[in-house]
Amino acid sequence: MHVRSVLRAARGLVNGGGNRGRLSVATVVLVQLRAFAVLILLIIGFSLLSPRFLAPDNLVLMVKHASLWAILAIGETFVILTAGIDLSVGSVVGLSGMIAGGLLYEGLTLGPLGSVVYFSAPVVIVLTLAVGLLVGLVNGLLVVKARVTPFIATLGMLYVVRGLAELRTNGATFPSLAGQPELGNTGFDFVGSGQLLGLPVQIWLMGAIAIVGTLIARQTAFGRHVYAIGGNARAALLAGIRVTRVTIAVYMISGFCAAAAGIVVASQLGASSPAAGESFELTAIAAVVLGGTSLFGGRGTVVGSILGAFVIGFLGDGLVLLGVTAFWQTVVIGLVIITAVVVDQAQQAWEKSREIEIVPLEPPAGTAMA
Amino acid sequence: MTIHVTSQPPVGPGADDVALRVRGVTKRFPGTLALNHVDYDLLKGKVNVLVGENGAGKSTLMKILAGAESPSEGTLELDGQVVTFGSPRDAAALGIRVIYQELSLFPNLSVTDNIHAGAEITGPFNRVRFAEEASRARELLAHLEEPIDPATLVGDLRLGQQQLIEIARGLAHEVRILIMDEPTSALSVADTEVLFRVIRELRAAGVTIVYISHKLDEVMRIGDRVTVLRDGRVVAQASTSEIDIPWIIEQMVGRRSDQFFRHQGHQVGEVILRTSKLSLAHPTISGRFVIKDVSFDLRAGEILGVYGLLGSGRTELLECLLGVHPHMTGTIELAGRPVLGPIPDRISAGLALVPEDRQRDSLVQTLNVEQNLTLTHWRSITRTPLVNHGEERRLARRLMGQLSIRARQPTQSIGSLSGGNQQKVVVGRALLVSPLVLLLDEPTRGIDVGAKAEIFGLISSLAGEGKGIVFVTSELLEVLAISDRILVMAKGAVTAEFTRDEATQELLVNASAGQMQSTAEVIHARA
Hints:
The complex is a heterodimer. By secondary structure, chain A is mainly alpha-helical. Chain A has 14 helices and 4 strands. Chain A has one domain (50-345): ABC transporter involved in vitamin B12 uptake, BtuC (Orthogonal Bundle), CATH 1.10.3470. Chain A has helices at residues 3-15, 20-49, 56-81, 89-105, 121-144, 150-167, 190-193, 201-219, 221-231, 233-238, 243-269, 280-290, 302-321, 326-354, and strands at residues 108-110, 115-117, 195-196, 199-200. In chain A, helix 2 runs parallel beside helix 13 (302-321), helix 3 packs across helix 9 (221-231) and helix 3 (56-81) crosses helix 12. Chains A and B meet through helix 2, helix 9 and helix 10 of A and strand 1, strand 2, strand 10, helix 10 and helix 11 of B.
């Protein structure tokens, strides 16, 4: 973090006026800073309370945990930026684990003769991601074509997709995803348990999704359109943006990320359970909101959501380290989320109050009184 | 029926003929100054008429009187005492009621429920006395000569009947000051007569009426005193016995013609846009049309003015051209080729729209100035998969220079610009796509005189470059100043067409009030 820009931001706030141009930069910094500041405070606090907290192996482990939330939150960010919401991501985690697990454990039964095909691990991953995209496509079509509000459309899909995951095995678990060397489908565990250059693959995967996600959001026309739709959907439509297409695409991005998270979970466990990912959608949304993205759309960043995911991950792991019960963790995380949004509201009201331009008054000349 | 009139408290000296005094009221919105030091007296027991063009500040003033907005500066004095309204409820408690033009009814509730909404007649334990409410509603409706069953759902009523329910609601309570915003816009001639009778009765009972209308003949019939607002100021006041309609029009538009850009004759080329029998059915009421059989041609380099009041279909006409309403019927040809498909295709074909309400339809508040400018033109800044920020900045700076958009930097937030500069951003966005035909919907609404002149200069030079311009406005002087040809719309149809030389203020006002010109007049107008 740039200390100087933080200082400048703080000074701008204290001065409270004069240079609006600098202030708006300062506020942008602060929006992103909020999750970052909380994260720093958490790290300082926990490291004081527990010497184990900052141990390298613990840090790597915590980052690995947080990566899972981050992957989900990145996808969710795109949806929320359009003023939508995706409640189906937790169920997609479950379904994609079952799809991958089934393909690895049982293969795919083809044709009437019952010949069974096994795919290599990379192909399984691609097919699983495709399922995530498909769920996203259905979500998007429900929202733009059937005009179901995003909350209801994806709530429905939360149930439908979870049900499909359970139907795959009637609720049973695929006990092993290791594959068999003679079938050529080993190596799936690399995603969740492997290491690359000394760090878990999961962290690299999150990093890659984060970079691509940030580029899409900040540097492409598509990203600009996402922000525009969330800021003013009618203006976006009249400006010639293909609102329907972009809206469908954000749900597909979310589905894709959720499937990636599902692959990570299944690969890590070496097994897939249809119950995997329950309530993950709430954690993902919480991370996005903590990261400063507005639920009303148009405002927020991918980086903010990643920071939000880290706050939630570090908070949970830190409290475990301190021996605090899981029930208190839930309460604390809830309070942190509420505080973040309260701060956000106050900040927005403050920003808005600054935007009223004082139009100079002219003397009421030329009034013709009859 | 009895009209409840609150007993008047003892009044201070010299205040006995003024019910409410508005003193130095100013109202600012982000980017605009809606009211500028307004002083206004409501004469007690009179019909106080408020007129002015769109954007003159009538509705803002009305909302301040009704407690729906609070003034940025200035005070209200009710019977000599300064009052502050935190909400419409506060104003209602003092006997100030509003009949809104945009109906504020609950379509899912019955007529009775609507009339008493927010002021239910209750008995012990706060229980609603339904029978009493219903009989009161029946009484009110009988008085308005509209014997509707009070149990009917409001959503099932005709628009005109709904407006009468809105009026009944205003009469249902003790009222000292009754504000009526375009109360006759959906009423038939017979219903209007009934309303006028009721207004006269109220006046006789000492109720102070504020009557806001565009229909100047009605204003002359029912009004006692006329107050004209223009650009947020009270510019003239007179009693109706001393004035006539041309005087009101003159005060409304002002003697601003010399401030306006003067029309320069320019070369008009081939027909570039041709529409034939455009119709758009009303979205909810079957058999009604928002636009009905509109056909016109537009030539390259021609400025076609479209004059009409709110609800005349002028905005929907432009929206139909751009493809906002896919269920529209009729044909559109641009440069000889049919215009079809969704909005982006029509923009690529050469149409660009500057919408009526820039906050609602154009600007994305969460994006900055340059991002708003390039919103439609994104293809040119994204030839590679990534946005070319250098090119975006270059385009933004060029436009900011060309249109003299006064912003400190291209990354400034759009909300911090003045209304005129925000509007120039919207126009700039449309120009970036190099349209063949530019559709302008009230491009000068709510912007200052200087910015207006700049926009007019721009429109003229664009026409000079051979672009076709459709210029929709409800400002008489503007449409007269800049158009080569003028279409007048009312109730979705074109009611008259004038060349630049034939058009006069009165002809336009009459045609826009809805009556079709007689055939002779139209032939004369076209000759």
